[in-house]
Amino acid sequence: MHAIGRTVADYIHVISSRYSFWNTSFGADHFMLSCHDWGPHTTSYVPHLFNNSIRVLCNANTSEGFNPQKDVSLAEINLKTGDITGLTGGPSPSRRSTLAFFAGGLHGAIRNELMQQWKGKDQDVLVYEKLPPGKSYESMLKNSKFCLCPSGYEVASPRVVESIYAECVAVLISDGYVPPFSDVLNWNAFSVKVDVKDIPNIKKILMSISQSQYLRMHRRVKQVQRHFMNNGSPKRFDLFHMIVHSIWLRRLNIRVQD
């Protein structure tokens, strides 16, 4: 057993032997939270934790056992300082000159395919492994209509929330990814889902979206933005409350006998 798996197993053993609550439901009315890539894997060392408990995970990959009925997809956010000042907002749709944008490391089959198809090949779909000198990542997000969010080695990416902050319509390119808060948010209303096999057709797909449809999506991105805000002191409907609400919804489905 891996050292981290052993730590998790030992922890569950301690709380289950000291307290009666875990054993009453075999962990079904308990939750754990992890945004690390290893989070889903470490839970597999404890069957009750993996199969019964509510797992709040950034890497919400159905191919790795993520169960939307009992698990919670956690929005991944990369904040260098913990402050979102300057990251939110952006120009109006009419002032966004780039159709689609992505910049990020080359890891995972999906990103490899995206780079092969689009890196340096189109003036409307700008795909970079590394931004050219003088270009700002945040300004590129804010000047793009659509922001490409391909999975890397793991399905989750902070680019989804970065796009929402920049009021850029996120384009989700993944296999098996369950977007955060899908039980209450209609992602089809404010994002675009592109199958991996359709990566060569990204420009065609995005160009087929009418101006009126894009404006509706952009407006809805602004509306849902508050649900992804990370505040020092939680505010109503922000990220903290959305996570707690998602956990609460799943707890409602659990009946624990006295």
Protein described:
- The chain is α/β, with parallel strands linked by helices.
- It folds into 2 domains: 3-77 and 236-251, no CATH class; 93-228, Rossmann fold (3-Layer(aba) Sandwich), CATH 3.40.50.2000.
- Helices cover 34% and strands 14% of the residues.
- It has 10 helices and 8 strands.
- The chain has helices at 3-18, 21-25, 39-43, 47-51, 109-118, 137-142, 159-165, 202-207, 211-224, 239-251; strands spanning 31-34, 54-57, 72-73, 98-103, 125-128, 144-150, 169-173, 191-194.
- A 5-stranded parallel beta sheet has the order 5-4-6-7-8. It has a 3-stranded parallel beta sheet with strand order 1-2-3.
- The longest helix has 16 residues, at 3-18.
- Keywords: Glycosyltransferase, Golgi apparatus, Signal-anchor, Transferase, Transmembrane.
- Residues 8-209 form the Exostosin GT47 domain.
- It is found in: Golgi apparatus membrane.
- This is Glycosyltransferase.
- It is a single-pass type II membrane protein.
CATH superfamily of the largest domain: Glycogen Phosphorylase B
- How does the major sheet shape up? 5 strands, parallel
Q: Kindly report how far apart the N and C termini lie.
A: 34 Å
The percent range for helix content is 25-40%
Number of helices: 10
The fraction of residues assigned to DSSP E strands is 5-15%
**What shape does the CA trace take?**
elongated
Kindly name the structural category.
Answer: alpha/beta
| Secondary structure tally: strands | 8
CATH class of the largest domain: Alpha Beta
